Amino acid sequence: MKTQLLPSDLRVVIFSDDLPNRSGVGSYYQDLVDHLQNQLAGIETICPINKSGHQFKLWQIALPGDPTRNIYFPNVPLIYKKLCAIKPHLIAVTTPGPFGLLGLLISKKYRLPLCYGFHVQYDKLAEIYWNKLVGRLISSIFRLLDKWFFQSSSIVVANSSMIVNIARRLGAQNVSLVGTPIPALYIEKPVSKIGAELESIIFAGRLTAEKNIESILIAAGQMPQLKFSIAGDGPFRAEIQNYSAKHSNLDYLGWLSREQLLSVIDNNDMLILPSHNETFGTIALEAMARQKLVIVSDKCGIARWPALSQGLIVYGDNESLSDAILRVSNMSQRHREDITYRAREAAQTLNEETIFQWLDIFSDIVNP
Known about the structure:
The radius of gyration is 21 Å and the shape is globular. It folds into two domains: 7-181 and 350-366, Glycogen Phosphorylase B (Rossmann fold), CATH 3.40.50.2000; 184-349, Glycogen Phosphorylase B (Rossmann fold). It is of the alpha/beta class. It has 13 helices and 14 strands. The chain has a six-stranded parallel beta sheet with strand order 2-1-5-6-7-8, sandwiched between helices. The protein has a six-stranded parallel beta sheet with strand order 11-10-9-12-13-14, with helices on both faces. 43% of the residues lie in helices and 18% in strands. Helix 1 links the parallel strand 1 and strand 2. Helix 4 (122-129) runs antiparallel to helix 5 and helix 11 (282-289) packs across helix 13.
């Protein structure tokens, strides 16, 4: 009879093509590792450059369509040596790139259970970044990769009900909806009340087409009495810098570390996420944890979490970002404060539930 492994016995290796804290997926799994490292026998992330600066990449090329990001190729001998030292019980893969594919192949070679994190519709992003013909080709490739991961995985996880449904349509048999972790510092550091008036607004994230940056610039132009700040990097950086140079109510802050971003969130009244396509929207959850007003478009996966709905302001196609900001500005101070209290409470609860959920997932797939 096979011995049942407790979570405290488990050793987990996570393969990711994203750098820690440089994207939503990278931040998600770095936060997860930070929360679980004292509850598992071992948990390691193998990615191009990990949190401590150790490199597992062999070489890199610029991502076509977004030269501010790279495609990294793994140093296989170095990674193999690392795996021999860890002796994992299971493999988790977070992306369908070169590192993720290596994780999949290793899981097959050593017959290790595979957990696939399906967090981003890369096929949809391909249609945004490239022209119609190339976009369709790359989109088809990503769709085939996702199906291969689905067929090879013991479980597929997603942090949006929309993505769960897509995974099932593409053939995933065992799909689980998981929450999203938050950095401990965002929860533990004391928060302060928002001001009596809505005065300052922050956007933070990749400066790409799917983030609907144009709507932020329009809102800033229509509301000169409000202070807007944009933090991040990406193809729209030059456009934002040019706009900022001509408009005194918009500041471009560049890319910020998670610690710097926490301070910026704390120093603003509201965070906005007007994305055209957003699997979840981790930054919105982080701002909720800091007891801030948060506006998101209904295209963001976070808007579909019932447990978070009382702490979010959501707008749809019948309302512009500017209109949504004006709606919140016209609320009473008490109403706005109530929303922020509910936001922080809901974010904390989701974080706690997410940690226990992941422990159950890892335990279940090694103890079938």
